Amino acid sequence: MRLLRTAPGDDGKLEISQFSDHGIPPYAILSHTWGDDELTLDKLNESDAKGKAGYVKIERCCDIARADGLNYVWIDTCCIDKTSSAELSEAINSMYRWYEEAEVCYVYLADVPSKRTFEESRWFSRGWTLQELISPSVLVFYDETWMEIKDDDVHKRIADCTGIPLSVLQRERDLDDFSIAQRMSWAAKRETTRVEDRAYSLMGLFGVNMPLIYGERETAFIRLQEEIMRISDDHSMFAWESEDNDGFLAPSPSAFLHCQDTVSCTPLKNRASPLSMSGRGVHLEVRFIGIGLRGLGMALLHCRKTGEEDDKYIAVFVRDQDMTMEQFRRVRSEEISSVSLKDWKPSQCPMRKICIQARRTGHMRKINTARSHPLKGSNSEEYTRQEISQIMQFENEYALCDAALLGRNDEVWLLLTRSDIGIDVLSRAKSFPKGVRMGKDLVRDLSAQTPFSLAAASGNTATVRLLLQRGAELNSRDDFGRTPLLLAAQFGHTTVTQILLNMGASIESKDKKNVTALMYAAMNGHGDTINELLDAGATVNSRGGHLEMTALMYAAADGHTNAVEVLLHKGAAIYVVDALNRTAITHAAINGNKDTITALKLGGCDINWRNQEGRTQLSVAAENFPAKKNTGTVVKGLISAGAEIDARDNDGQTPLWWASGKLDNSDTVQILLENGASPSAKSYSGQKPADIARLRGHRLDYELLRRAEKNKLNGPQATRTRRFFK
After folding, report:
1. What angle do CA 88, 91, 93 make, to 5 degrees?
2. Domain named Heterokaryon incompatibility: which ranges (predicted)?
């Protein structure tokens, strides 16, 4: 520490001595505002020094200190080598302590009383003089003529003009008794020549140290707040107000102008975790209340205004940026609010650990855009209390399910701010007896769904993302065993399907009937969803359902030509058979889906394809689908599609032969005969269709076939038929 001797040397020059920390003698210290003609260390004893106003100031200060019996004095103009950045940084970081340890501080008011009153002195508006006012144990004020200003009410006058409590000025209370916000408010109206000094001049007031980086401008104040957070969990440092809303940390001390009565408080229950800082922002634990659109809420800081009840807290407005309750940003920073917990249900204001984006630089580029939020009173995004109650539906345990189904993302977010709602709560049984319209479908079977499943089923992409980010169960199942992926595929929500697959949803999961997502997409004709599933690795030829059908069969059965074309392009097998030995083209033929049949043919499907026994699909259908069971359309459809009417299998048996051997199959026999089937075609063992009908006792089929033979041969078969059955 450099100190100036109060007595000049034998040569009449001013002498500077340097002392180690343990050898510093008693000294006086000067507090003043810099003028235009100050005397710095390197010019202290120049030939023209005595002619400068700064020299007179130093000389008079030394005279007073010497008269007080002090041999040394510290004056910032000449006791710091400002050409050395290291020494300047050390001095500024030590300055509060130097003023505190001085025997006496002389305050020189260079503009009193000639230009203004005591309270109007420039000294009370400068940043550096705040610590010089608070830290010394003894202050003596002098006017511009170096006459001592004596006033029994000096401390009160200072308190009135600075906002600093009298107990601080009279050293009756420790600085730590006052909140961060209160101490910041004392500097709110003070200015410095260098922007950075507004922060550097406050280091001692908060007991922190940090390197000086001149040129960083407003960022210095951000760094100061970060240093304060390392040693304090006082939330009042966030209770500032300013039009500048680039982060959670204040842009300058001016933002604390109205914080003189902001005091810190600690909740009696659920003590908050300490503050911490990361690249994402400020991490803190607070009560959070959702109040508006697009994630608008209030973070209740652990501070309040002096004299307020214990259940009241200062709240700042924040926005949940990703609607995940993880990353917030302060908004509407020009205002704060006082919130009483009595006005809210406990479930609406739970303690939460959140992260609020901090300002990383003090100087932000000005962008000419509209405000990111409306001002209070103009198209506000904030719900009224009545609207919040209507959305919350405290008596409705299925409120979250209803909001997710309808894609009301803001309502889903608001409901999830409650502590008593689980994200995977199941929907009510028989939730929608009148049905819910989903695209072209009217769905009634959405019972036992989670909110996430309902959002996936209804294709609400934003809600799906929100619930996923909030931890919804990716592979939950409803009463039918359907996962969210199966539901999204069922209703053709391709974007939702993609999101679920990217998040790791099980692509081969099956419902209780062994139906996969690909099958659901195929049976409902959702070509784009089929493409998405196949590109993600779905097995194209897997079989499911009680008939063990493939996706191609499901698409063909319902006449979804586009889906059939997509599946064929992706390599779907055309000759796989289901549990009843039917191929995809048979399913298409059942409903007479001509375009689908054409698509299957173009894809390489032969209507007369034969299985290992040499039987065609018409042969199989003729045997297995009696017309009386409303499946005669299978045979008709195959014939219409070009099936060979008398195609023989490996044993020479035609479709009519197989139909004749089936009990109660007269309608099928009739259909085949009407379409030109030969009643006389014999198998390789010599049996005609009528022979197998007689052998198995199918009288009606036998008579029908014999008449058909008679019509062709014009022989006496009718008599023989009656004789056979006597």
Report:
1. 110
2. 27-111
Place of tokens 């009840």: 309
**Strand partners for 296:** 319
Tokens of 344: 């809210």
> Whole-angstrom Cα distance, residue 27 to residue 19?
12
What's the fold here for domain 383-506? 1.25.40
User: What is the homologous superfamily of the domain 615-726 according to CATH?
Assistant: Ankyrin repeat-containing domain (1.25.40.20)
Planar angle of CA 404, 329, 500, nearest 5 degrees = 35
8 A C-beta contact, residue 589 and residue 597: yes
Nearest to 677 by CA among 720, 721, 708, 637: 708
At residue 54, φ and ψ (nearest 5 deg) are -65, -30
Contact by Cβ (8 Å): 381, 438: no
- Residue 484: is its pLDDT beyond 60? yes
Burial (CB < 10 A; 0-12, 13-18, 19+), residue 616, is buried
For 704, the 3-state DSSP assignment is helix
pLDDT at 506: 94
CA dist., res. 623 & res. 685, Å (int): 19
DSSP letter at 51 equals G
pLDDT for 444 equals: 57
Residue 379 CB-density burial (10 A; 0-12 exposed, 13-18 middle, 19+ buried): exposed
Looking at mean pLDDT, say which of 424-428, 497-501, 598-602 comes out highest. Answer: 497-501
Does 440 score more than 60 pLDDT?
Answer: no
Contact of 445 with 453, CB cutoff 8 Å: no
Q: How many CB atoms lie within 10 A of CB 89?
A: 17
Same fold, 513-605 and 615-726: yes
**pLDDT confidence of residue 230:** 94
pLDDT at 252 over 90: yes
pLDDT of 388 reads: 92
Q: What is the DSSP-derived secondary structure letter of residue 18? A: E
Evaluated on CA atoms 122, 128, 132, 134, the torsion sign reads: positive
- Of 13, 104, 95, 94, the residue nearest 66 (C-alpha): 104
pLDDT at position 373 over 80: no
Query: HSE (CB half, 13 Å, CA atoms) of 679?
Result: 22
Q: pLDDT tens, 630-650?
A: 445 778 888 888 889 999 999
Q: What is the pLDDT of residue 268?
A: 58
pTM, entire model: 0.78
pLDDT at 726: 33
CATH number of 513-605: 1.25.40.20
How far apart CA 289 and CA 349 sit, in angstroms, is: 5
Domain extents for the chain? 2-173, 220-363, 383-506, 513-605, 615-726
Partners of residue 378 on adjacent β-strands: none
Helix ranges restricted to H, 74-165: 85-101, 129-134, 154-162
Q: Over 80: is that where the pLDDT of 656 sits? A: yes
The band of 48, judged by pLDDT with boundaries at 50, 70 and 90, is confident
Q: For position 371, what pLDDT does the model report?
A: 42
